[in-house]
Each structure stands twice: as structure tokens, then as C-alpha cells.
Amino acid sequence: MAVVETECIVLRSYDLADADKIAVLLTADHGVVRAVAKGAKRLKSKFGSGLEPLTRVNAAYFKKETRELVDLDKIEVIESAFSLVSSPEILTRFAYLIDILISLVPAELPDPALYRMTNACLGAVRNRPDSIEAISLYFEAWLLRLAGLFPTWDACSICKVQLGSDQASQIGAEFQLICERCRKSSGGDMVTAKQRDVVLRSRKLSPEAFALEPIPDESLKKLSSIFRRMIGRATGFENVDRALQAGVQGRR
Question: Domain spanning 82-252 has what CATH number?
């Protein structure tokens, strides 16, 4: 039986038995891990508030080769999530982001970049709660990119010519971009040069710096709608916009 100690973010926890819980952890070194927290529902549990969603912790757990679930031994809170979960809008938005992360990321696949990105997004929202829309877009774009699901938006997918800084593009069936010369119809969904530039800037900036960018609400909504369609196709989530909106309204 191997003992693993790692920093992680609690994605969610749910009841397992009368006194136990299962915690889904995004670890810095071992990807997404599901852990049994025995006695977590007891009043004097050794886990305390460490299993609250979005809490950053140091965790120690026991792993057996023959078991999918690991046994959580102890947790030490590094950064509380109280300021995040106290906002219904932020909690609902991150619940959606956690859902798509768990759906897109294979269990126990180490991805330090994913952990750093998620932690940076949480930190950015702690510092700037009003930036939740921009940070959500940033998270969606990076999650798709890290999962290998984001096609290149630098060049036309047909003629391979680099797209100009003033050139609008049509979105193809696989969410690739098609330049105006190669598009076969005047209809279809379009991305403006400025909207494409927003995506390119998200790849170069930290989430907090990205949140300071002057991005029009129309571009945020347009791009997020496109990303959610990508996510819906990859995960099988249908109508993710509707599900997210229903969650927000239900918490008002």
C-alpha cells in the first residue's frame, strides 16, 4: 500500500455511507483522484471543513493497486473556499466548470498545467469576484486546449493561410475556422478578428491579467457559447447553456 502526499483542490464531495464521504480531488501530481473519507460526516471528523468544494489542501491518502478509490488519511487546509462558495453565482458557475473538468479529464492522469490553471482561476476570482464571466471563459478555453479538443484558430483550416488581424472567419463543422475566401456559403456562424484575438490573448496571459482586458460582453457571450458547444459535443452534455442558466436561477 503506497502513501501519497500531495497538494490538491477539492472539486466536490458526496455521501457514501452513514458517516463517510467520497471526495473528488484535483491533485497537483496525480490528476483527478476519488478518495474515501471515512467518518467525514461525524461532528468531530478529523477532516473538518477540508472537504468543502474549491478548498485548496495538502492531502495524504493510501492507494492500493487493485482499488479505484483511495483512502483519505488526513487533510490540511491551505486556502479556504469560504469567500467563493458564499456567492451563489460563483458557486453555480464553478459547479459547472467542475462538471466539465471531471468529464473531460481522465482519472489519475497527471497534468500539472491543469492544476496550475485551475488554481490560478480560483485565485483570480477570489481577488476579483466581478470577473467571473471572463475567468469562466478563460477556464473553458484552457480546458478544451489541455484536453486536445481546441482546433487551431491561427490559420484557415482549408487553405492553411494565416488569418489576418482584421479578418472574420466562419466556424466549420468541427469548430475549425474557414477564411472568407474558402467559405462556401454566406451563412453560418462567424468569429470576428477581435473575438479570435481574445482567444489568442487567453493563451498568453494569466487569468487575472485576462480579466483586466477590455473584452465586450457580446464577445464573452459569443465565445463562451461556442466553447460550450465544443464541450457539449466532447462530453455528451446537451444544452449546457440551459443547464447553467437553470442552476443560476435556482439559487436566486
Answer: 1.20.1440.120
Instruction: Give the global pTM.
Output: 0.89
Topology match between the domains 1-80 and 82-252:
no
Spell out, as residue ranges, where the chain has pLDDT lower than 70: 1, 237-252
For residue 95, give Cα distances in angstroms to 98, 101, 171, 247. Answer: 5, 10, 28, 9
Whether CATH 2.40.50.140 fits 1-80: yes
> pLDDT (tens digit, 9 = 90+) per residue, 31-87?
999 999 999 888 788 988 889 999 999 999 998 877 889 999 999 999 998 888 888
- The reported pLDDT for the residue numbered 252 is 36
Per-domain residue ranges of the chain: 1-80, 82-252
